[in-house]
Amino acid sequence: MGRRDRDSHDDADAEAVARAGHGVEVGEVSTVARPLAGPLRLVVFWIGVVTAVVHIYLNTFGTMSELRVAALHFGLFGLLCALIYPLRPVAGRAARRWVLGIDVVLGLLCLVTVGYLFLYEDAFHARGMAFDGWDWAMSLLALGLAMEFARRSSGWLIPVLIIIAMTYATLWGPWVSGVFHFAGLSGEVMMMRAYLTGDGLFGPIARISYSYVTMFILFGAFLVRSGAGDFIIDLARCAAGRFVGGPGLVAVFGSGLMGSISGSAVANTMSTGIITIPLMKRAGYRPRFAAGVEAAASTGGQIMPPIMGAGAFIMANYTLVPYVEIVALSVLPAIIYFLSVGAFVRVEAIRLGLSAEAPEDGKSFGQVIREGWHFLLPIAVLVGLLIQGFTPTYAAGLSMGAVVVASWLSKAPMGPRAVLEALAEGARIAATMAILLVAVGVVVAVIATTGIGNTFSQMISAWAGGQLWVLLILVALASLVLGMGLPVTAAYAVLAPLSAPALNDLMLEGHILQALVDGTVPQTVAMTLSALLPDLGGVLGEPMTQAQAQAVWARVSALPGDFTAGLAGQLVDPVTVSMTLLGAHLIIFWLSQDSNVTPPVCLTAFAAGAIAGTRPLPTGMAAWKIAKGLYIVPVLFAYTPLVTGTWPDQVEVFVFACFGVYAFAGLFQGCLESPLRWYERLGSGAAAALMLWPHGAFPVHLSGLVLLAVLVAVTWRRRRRTMADSAPAT
């Protein structure tokens, strides 16, 4: 992006970028990285190259066991983290050398724990999985190093959670009364699960990290190194630059495309914001609004297929829904979100009286495509391989090769040096997320082992009183608090097993009630319930009112829990059951994004504010207002068939939601095609509410669309009259 930076930014902007980037890493957390220079820079570079090559080989051609691959993943990225993030920042050359020496030792010890597992894993199983002194030492060392590197890269929250989780399972769980009582496990069992089995450090979360997450981050690094970033910005300018609010729409479009390959909100802000924020400021947007738009748009990169901030891979593991299906079902919701941000951009431009302007470079869409069409080839290869049924990791590996081959069709082909740089940069970017996910695996393992996830779900479900909207608020608050100290993907990985069961149960209950209302209860289920509850025999299988259905389900729900759970799976078809679970996880994943743009801790907004030269908290408030789609879409997941319905149902929800978010922006900004009067503003809010109303009320949705059309027509005519009155007389 160097060429474009020089064309469109002054020295002040560059200084702001430097201030924003200092201490901000790709994992959406504030860190202090060690300045890399001289021999240390070369060492980190080549370790990164080796790490990337090892992961590419093991994910495409390797046959090593999953446990050993996960351990090697931890060892290599642990060494990188030790060299990139110092034990603590110090001043003075001598002190820095001491700290570097300690970090080198810790990094090598990380490899020692991996080597021990490789050498003595078989011996451990041969002696009946009995712990000896060396097993204790190595497991404690591995856990301690994971906690330390997580602390360096993301702060104290993950280490504190690990300590709380491990001590709960071994020490104070038996002393807790009530629903959170746990009989307890020995320290030997917990350390064995954390280090020498397929749980804990090297469990499912680590396997997702070394495969899907790392491979797709490397793929994104190859795309960026090939020059795809310039092509994306050029494409965004051509697609959106000529409309009203063009520079802001460029930010929305460009950040969405960049986010689809980077999967990091802060990195997205730093790479596109240095271009789009100055463009918006020069066009007439207020600096705070410009920074808010960039932060909101970059946050959308986390929910934009195919990478989705690595969350789609963890979601596939939790829900057993194929990754390709998750990505496909996430396209329409992502479009709704970006349209909502674009709506804020457009109505603000109209409110400020900004006009459409041609892009500065004057490139046509055809010219941009002719110069950069080859950047689309790797994406086509990736999508084609996924559709053909290849695993995502294998598809990502082949797509990296496609990036290199495609670059040979450009003016700047990737040679050996560029390939090595892409490998090293990809490994550096992946290091933070890799260590975090390995460490989070311990917390997730304790949640599964102790059963506290189901207990927590039952508790928040009781707090919600059976009301889905209350439960959504509770999950949103929990995700915001957890997201203050964690990257959103890690926050989702921790929060999902705690709250997804409660969300899934309440959402599935809605489908069950609908089956009772429609009278579509299977005959076998009706016979079983009639035997247990004879007074229901003449009711089941016949259409009934909503009140009757609720009364019937209340009776059925009073039966033993395991029986009721199995019965629910028979009342609703398996596809709906699976999609409802996916919808619950999508709600949690989307709500986990709000910490990027919600004060007091909103690092994405802070980074954008540093580029724009605005104060952090006001910038965060602006980003929070613009990113309202993060709350609207989860409501659609919960109350509409946006995920669980047929294609016609999904398209209907999508179309009305697109117009609904536009009306919503009018309510918040007080403008549609011209500034709104107070009663028109209320009308815009009413139109938004009607179009976003739960599915099944088409006349209600249509009335909202008609109301919006009237408001748009009125404000458009008012705008035309204003323009005519202000035009100079001829």
From TrEMBL:
<feature type="transmembrane region" description="Helical">
    <location>
        <begin position="131"/>
        <end position="149"/>
    </location>
</feature>
<keyword id="KW-0997">Cell inner membrane</keyword>
<feature type="transmembrane region" description="Helical">
    <location>
        <begin position="597"/>
        <end position="617"/>
    </location>
</feature>
<keyword id="KW-0813">Transport</keyword>
<feature type="domain" description="TRAP C4-dicarboxylate transport system permease DctM subunit">
    <location>
        <begin position="147"/>
        <end position="641"/>
    </location>
</feature>
<feature type="transmembrane region" description="Helical">
    <location>
        <begin position="429"/>
        <end position="448"/>
    </location>
</feature>
<dbReference type="GO" id="GO:0005886">
    <property type="term" value="C:plasma membrane"/>
</dbReference>
<feature type="transmembrane region" description="Helical">
    <location>
        <begin position="99"/>
        <end position="119"/>
    </location>
</feature>
<feature type="transmembrane region" description="Helical">
    <location>
        <begin position="368"/>
        <end position="387"/>
    </location>
</feature>
<feature type="transmembrane region" description="Helical">
    <location>
        <begin position="468"/>
        <end position="495"/>
    </location>
</feature>
<feature type="transmembrane region" description="Helical">
    <location>
        <begin position="700"/>
        <end position="716"/>
    </location>
</feature>
<dbReference type="InterPro" id="IPR011853">
    <property type="entry name" value="TRAP_DctM-Dct_fused"/>
</dbReference>
<feature type="transmembrane region" description="Helical">
    <location>
        <begin position="326"/>
        <end position="347"/>
    </location>
</feature>
<feature type="transmembrane region" description="Helical">
    <location>
        <begin position="571"/>
        <end position="591"/>
    </location>
</feature>
<dbReference type="Pfam" id="PF06808">
    <property type="entry name" value="DctM"/>
</dbReference>
<feature type="transmembrane region" description="Helical">
    <location>
        <begin position="629"/>
        <end position="647"/>
    </location>
</feature>
<protein>
    <submittedName>
        <fullName>TRAP transporter 4TM/12TM fusion protein</fullName>
    </submittedName>
</protein>
<keyword id="KW-0812">Transmembrane</keyword>
<feature type="transmembrane region" description="Helical">
    <location>
        <begin position="653"/>
        <end position="671"/>
    </location>
</feature>
<keyword id="KW-0472">Membrane</keyword>
<dbReference type="GO" id="GO:0022857">
    <property type="term" value="F:transmembrane transporter activity"/>
</dbReference>
<feature type="transmembrane region" description="Helical">
    <location>
        <begin position="156"/>
        <end position="173"/>
    </location>
</feature>
<feature type="transmembrane region" description="Helical">
    <location>
        <begin position="40"/>
        <end position="58"/>
    </location>
</feature>
<dbReference type="InterPro" id="IPR010656">
    <property type="entry name" value="DctM"/>
</dbReference>
<feature type="transmembrane region" description="Helical">
    <location>
        <begin position="208"/>
        <end position="228"/>
    </location>
</feature>
<keyword id="KW-1133">Transmembrane helix</keyword>
<feature type="transmembrane region" description="Helical">
    <location>
        <begin position="248"/>
        <end position="268"/>
    </location>
</feature>
<feature type="transmembrane region" description="Helical">
    <location>
        <begin position="70"/>
        <end position="87"/>
    </location>
</feature>
<comment type="function">
    <text>Part of the tripartite ATP-independent periplasmic (TRAP) transport system.</text>
</comment>
<keyword id="KW-1003">Cell membrane</keyword>
